[in-house]
Design goal:
5 helices, globular
């Protein structure tokens, strides 16, 4: 389902990013398993809240920021201007290259995607990871039905659960963070 944010929504997200960037987004980026040289995918990058911190951790690597919305992707370009290790991709199905990423992460993205679309998105996400690659998800804890579906689809696509934790996010409540490794 295609959806473009209003200017107000982008503006308010920027304010939250300025106020909570370190505690919410940097904390998540700091937990990503990065050594500095990985090929990384930010699926549903929005305005680049996590990407802003993740890109700094990739001095020899590369970050692909992907979103279904042109407006969010443009906002992301603005947040990340000055970085050289980033490319931007507008999401279209069947576009991710097979086994090209070491790490992919989705931060507050999958719970918003309808079930029928998740059945296409998750196999593509899984297919875009190298063997041994890592998928990290963070989704609102109260989205229990969506979380069950996501877990089922992820496991059906050769991804093995490695770790999970619940984190408390200011103003957003509890979130579930899961780490999977591709067989
Ligand atoms: C709640 S925002 C989260 C943005 C960012 N990850 C963050 O945490 O600030 C969800 C994002 O997912 C994007 N999105 C939704 N469905 C998508 C899809 N099928 N493929 C790629 N991006 C999608 C939206 O356009 C939006 O930018």
């Amino acid at each position: 389902m295609k959806y473009e944010p209003t200017r107000l929504e982008i503006f308010l997200t920027r304010i939250v990013f300025l106020l909570c960037g370190k505690s919410v987004y940097r904390a998540f980026a700091d937990r990503l398993p990065l050594d500095g040289g990985e090929q990384v995918l930010d699926f549903g990058c929005g305005m680049g809240t996590v990407a802003y911190y993740a890109a700094k951790k990739l001095p020899h690597g590369h970050l692909t920021c992907l979103d279904i919305s042109k407006r969010w992707l443009n906002a992301c370009r603005k947040t990340l201007r000055g970085y050289r290790n980033i490319s931007f991709l507008l999401w279209e199905s069947l576009q991710l290259t097979n086994e090209s990423f070491d790490v992919a992460y989705c931060h507050f993205v999958l719970h918003d995607i309808p079930a029928s679309e998740l059945e296409r998105v998750i196999p593509e996400l899984a297919g875009s990871l190298k063997p041994g690659g890592v998928l990290v998800l963070r989704e609102p804890f109260n989205e229990t039905n969506k979380i069950s579906l996501i877990k089922r689809l992820v496991q059906q696509n050769r991804l093995i659960s490695k770790d999970s934790r619940i984190t408390d996010i200011p103003m957003m409540g509890n979130a579930l963070e899961c780490v999977y490794i591709k067989k």
